[in-house]
Amino acid sequence: MFHPFSNVMMPTPEPTSPLQTALAEQGLFMLDGALATELERRGADLLDPLWSAKLLIEQPDLIRQVHLDYFLAGADVATTASYQATFEAFARRGLSHEQAADLMRRSVTLACEARDAFWAEPAHRVGRRRPLVAASIGPYGAMLADGSEYRGYQGISRQALADFHRPRLQVLAHAGADLLACETIPCLDEALAIAGLLPEFPGVQAWLSFSCRDGAHNSQGEPFADCVAQLDALPQIAAVGVNCTAPEFIESLVELARSHTTKPIVVYPNSGEHYDAVDKVWHGEGRAHDFAAQAMRWHGRGARLIGGCCRTGPDDIRAIKQAAVASGALIETGAPR
User: Where Zn(2+) is bound, by residue (predicted)?
Assistant: First the structure.
């Protein structure tokens, strides 16, 4: 960009992302809740390495309905059913590269259709911005379907992780979503591998959230503060934070993030139950019974994007939205945007 009163070329500013625009207008951005476990609650059989991506083949209408129900509950975004949709997983099912890519694109189409159906009703627009669609980018461990996104990896290089992620990014970055949701990342190497690929897709913005083992470390055991700090200067990372982590750790993790990044902080914990990756079942008691009250504490510590992950549902998002409005954390406007 050339400044008209100078011979100096000025740097071209980064374009404002839809997420940045939304946060500037409303302060708190409501995420959706779990997709896969909500589909299971509605009767879907997801005992399969493809997990929720299985329904892209078998029951796409059910995926669309869950997205719509989250919008009705107050979510400002739909996160697509592409978390476990990988070329490797689809190939094991006998699908070609192009068939797999079509299913990945379908995940975005379903979320966009739900968003458009929601927005077509004038009553839904009152006090709301037009919701966004975030294409889910699950970790390498999701493709393995062995629970390693909650442990981390040994012996996998950053280059190998980049090689794994690139083909799916090439599809989802151009599938029509507003941004990418790079989620449940267990280690810094995978986060940097993904972040290093984003410049290949100019204009694409992403949030990046880690899975964490406690209130100070990611799932691989690296300091969470260091992970957040290393992403702070990367312009295509729109927000950083944590997901699919027990609620009791979130407050500490938000405080660490706030001290090590200027980016908006995203949090969407699970219910607090423990997932057994061998038997594919959840153990323990959920600790999200006061999810809305906890969410307001996370917001008070600095979280700007808040929702739920595994074993949360539309009722939890509705409760957070109501608490946010009641507390003044989220001010509903009188006209749609």
Answer: 244, 309-310
